[in-house]
Amino acid sequence: xxxxxxxxxxxxxxxDKFLSRELSDLSRSYIQKLLKEQNxxxxxxxxxxxxxLSAGDSVEVEIPDPEPLDILPEDIPLDILxxxxxxxxxxxxxxxxxxxxxxxxxxxxVNAVMFHCGKDLSGINGVLRPGIxxxxxxxxxxxxxxxxxxxAHQILAEQLKxxxxxxxYHAVVTGNLKSDTGTVxxxxxxxxxxxxxxSTKSNSPRPAVTHYxxxxxxxxxxxxxxxLETGRTHQIRxxxxxxxxxxxxxxxxxPAKCPFKLEGQTLHAKIxxxxxxxxxxxxxxxxxLPEYFIKLLSTLRK
Length: 302
Description:
Strand content: 25-35%
CATH superfamily of the largest domain: Pseudouridine synthase
Radius of gyration: 21 Å
CATH topology of the largest domain: Pseudouridine synthase
Structural class: alpha+beta
Helix content: 10-25%
């Protein structure tokens, strides 16, 4: 059970708005549910969602432990790039969610990995994310690392934390980038008004750095490689949109209309490089571009 003690710093701010800003991982609807169930107290008393805070108010938030869910293994084919006793590296297809979440408790990568690995998965991230060290969006394809034991997970999570894991993505962005190389250094956090989006204009941003280089130019579109220095949610998508070059097909951060038949953003996690948790040797895995991406590049070249 998680507990938070917060102090309001402004007058006439609605309690649900204040908490969705301060606790950016919680949705407004979940905060309202906590208020209804009296898990949120202001100055020791339960309040409603429309309660307006005063500066100096003490806000206590108690988040109950989630009820255990029965996540079941599913016989879903995996495109395996590498496997040993410690790690599994897969090439995730477009449209597959990485781990179970509200609305997606079946047909996820975790369901497939549980079937493939059996009990050989790290348990550090709990029942919903066994073996998962990092994740990529549902409509992003490419390399994803799974850990088979807690020791490997701890070592690789530390590499992720100190930015020593190599993550290079290929993408097609709209417009013609001026420079052949560049860096976007802009902190990212939850969008101030749209909870489904991330933004460089967040009220609670975290440092985020993306390096990019041009691979090919097509006039109205540019084929690029992006290397992550940090790994924030939607980082490449938000960063490229922030400099006026959203990723082609991105329904959230890009233009409403797309001239090509795409299912979501044209973004592929191509290269993943790690120091192996047991051998200490550096290893790199290369996920081949998916068929839709190859066809798109062929169309653009014509």
